[in-house]
Amino acid sequence: MSAQTxxxxxxxxxxxxxxxxxxxxxxxxxxxWVFMRASGAILVLLIxxxxxxxxVAGEGIKAIDFGFVAGKWANPFWQGWDLVMLWxxxxxxxxxxxxxxxxxxxxxxxxxxxxxxxxxxxxxVVTLGTLVIFTFDPCPAGAPADLLPSFCST
Length: 154
Known about the structure:
Elements: H1 3-6, H2 28-56, H3 66-73, H4 76-104, H5 108-135
């Protein structure tokens, strides 16, 4: 050792208490990164297709009402289209917010609470959205005829 370093006291790293201990996660973050790019590209196609069919190919925004949605969801193709769009958008958004929480929530307890709230919101929205798409009935039995759309047989 040189004379300069023999008597020098070691200086502690000032940032050490603020660094989280990194755990090995394999390639999970790589896969989520690739998923974000692929799902983003697919979502652009799904959303522009959705907007084109609803706004350009039809009569515009004034034609979108209960009957329009009911007629569209009578076709399994559009049910599937909207289902894929819902699921991809929710997984994509949840993964993005998860990344933000991991980056900015410094305390482990806060990070856990935020991610649990995020996952709970994901489950609620996806479950309710999926149920609405598949159980939507524009002509419920026993409903007053004056409240039903014109295409429902009384």
